[in-house]
Amino acid sequence: MRQIAVAIHSNYLPGLAEKAEKFIKALAERCPDAVLLVGGYWGHMKDVVDVALRNGLRVVAVLPIEREDVHLPREVIVLRTGCEYRCRSVVMVRSADAVAVLGGGVGTAIEAFMAYAMGRPVFILSNVGAHTDRLKEAYPEYFDERKAVKIVYVDDPVKMAELVCAAEGGVKTDFG
Question: Pfam families given for it (predicted)?
Answer without folding.
Answer: LDcluster4
